Amino acid sequence: MSKTVIEVKDLFKVYEGPVPVKAVNGISLTIKEGEFTALKGPSGCGKTTLLNMLGGLDYPTSGSILVGGNDITSLGENELIDFRLRNIGFVFQAYNLIPVLSATENVSFIMLLQNRPKEEREDRARQLLQSVGLTGKEDKRPGELSGGQQQRVAVARALASKPQFVLADEPTANLDSESTANLLDIMLKLNKEEGMTFVFATHDDRVINRARRVVAISDGKVVSDLSK
Amino acid sequence: MIFKIAWRNIWRSKIRSLVVLTSIALGIWAGLLIIGFSFGMNNERTSSAIGSTLGHSQVHSLSFLEEPTSAAVIGSAAEVQAIEELLQEAVFVKGVSTRAIMMGMVSAPKSARGARMIAVDPDSERANSTLPETIVEGDFFESKTRNSVIIGQKLADKLGLGLRKKVVLTFQDAEGNISRASFRITGIYKTLNATWDELNLYIKRSDLAHIIGQDLVHEIMVRYDETEGTEEKTAKLSAALPEGAAILSWKRNSPELGYADDMMGIMLVLVLGIIMMALLFGIINNMLMAILERRRELGMLMAVGMNKRKLFIMILVETLMLGFVAGPVGILLGDLSTRVMMGIGIDLTSKKEGLANLGVQSIIYPEIVPEYYLIVAVMVIMTALLAALYPAYKALKLNPVQAIRGE
Hints:
The structure holds two protein chains of two kinds.
Chain A: E1 4-15, E2 21-32, E3 36-40, H1 47-54, E4 62-67, E5 70-71, H2 77-87, E6 88-91, H3 103-113, H4 118-131, H5 147-160, E7 165-169, H6 177-194, E8 197-202, H7 205-208, E9 213-218, E10 221-227
Parallel strand pairs in A: 3-8, 3-9, 6-7, 7-8
Antiparallel strand pairs in A: 1-2, 1-4, 4-5, 9-10
Helix pairs in contact in A: 3-4, 3-5, 4-5, 5-6
Chain B: H1 2-10, H2 14-54, E1 57-61, H3 62-66, H4 77-89, E2 93-107, E3 112-120, H5 122-128, E4 135-138, E5 148-152, H6 153-159, E6 166-172, E7 178-189, H7 194-199, E8 200-204, H8 205-212, E9 219-224, H9 230-240, E10 245-249, H10 250-253, H11 255-293, H12 295-304, H13 308-344, E11 346-347, H14 352-357, E12 363-364, H15 370-396, H16 400-404
Parallel strand pairs in B: 3-8, 5-7
Antiparallel strand pairs in B: 1-9, 1-10, 2-3, 2-6, 2-9, 4-7, 5-8, 6-7, 11-12
Helix pairs in contact in B: 1-13, 2-11, 2-13, 2-15, 11-15, 13-15
């Protein structure tokens, strides 16, 4: 049986204001190693808030998030930064690459933050770019790459730190069908071959259709959880 | 890689970076030029005063320092000679010159004025001061004519006098008797200091001795091998002097010159400080803009695990790099233009009158002052460090989730 990577228990996130908004309203969820999970739902359903909390970018109002058995909601801000660096790979909707660095440098930068030796950084960056199909584009800067190619660099970057899992927030929102299919092929391959756990927040059917587990969220609650 | 990112980030917005780099370079350039100009002006004034009138130090009797009366002589002729010999024993003493100094009055046919009469030994002055070089009309006691006087151009103008005109000098001898004698103007001098020229006139010590029947010495001017280390050299000589005599350096003999010399350093650091202050705000503005533009990227870096210390260092390095690029350019520009100006001088003839009252020539030749390059370099680095603080603080305060969305 696969190991549990993330275990969410009774998670609430309430945004205080004149009318308090329960963005996440009592979610409990377990993600196992090697899963390829999509959190689906319309805009404002709470999937991005949930993803941010899974990624240690935001604190819940109550509840716990156990990653590898450790509750990350009890970590301080600096510990959380270090936790993110060592355990989580991020893929963002707007790619968010560093425009002044080449593809290789963007990928190896994360490993620099982890104080890995130069040789290892360069080897792994090259290898990862190759696995996302960007051989020959290593020295290109983001501005010289297409949206799909940039997102593939972002996937390589997410994997560079050897994370426990990768969180992707609407990774295909800015991509055309071909690039989306291509990106998903690559992610599925990495999932299958390397056993990398992926969690998406998306309302893109192209992603949902290829996910092996789909968790539907509505009004901050899990309304269905289907594994294919 | 942080250096690489910082360097490339500077060139992301080329025009904005060039504007801030240019302003830093120009600020440094202007600062160095002001420094060169101020030192040139001050050193010229000081060396002119040392050369023509003050010497590096002067020996007086203690009573003369209290009240410069005719009676306050250094000592008898033998005592004075003993002091002269003692002074000349020091290797750094290049020459001494004895003078009698008396306050009195100079009367011309049309008017009269108070004056300070300095009775000198012409040969000794020729050897030890630049006074003879300041003669603009006539000569410096070349003729054997008795009772000849050299007056400053400003005094000559005030009294309506010219060469070969007669004046009557009135003064007190050591016993307090009033003496009066007629003198003929054989030379007119002009130093850089018009105030000095208006007050002081020169006669021969032999003439004075003849008139009052005494050879008085109130002052021994001492010339060193170089101005550097004047205070230490003066202190050495001071220890050897007999009781009742005191030696003071030019700075203490002419407090206004010494003060100007001491104040200049402080003033220049202040001027540089003001320039740096202006640059500080320019750099802060530039960096704040850069951070505002890159908040998505900074948000991403924080999200993926760049800790606050590294983020702070990245912004610090980027800001410092602005200083490291523009600083050398500014210093080089400042150095080159000072060197060019050293050759041609800065012509302030239109302000001649005012400058002459300050003891400054109307064409000023700036000087290179290498130690200020270091001061400027340190100030630029400090400014960049200070300028980095607020933008870095703003960056650290970003919320990664909001920053990634560009909010």
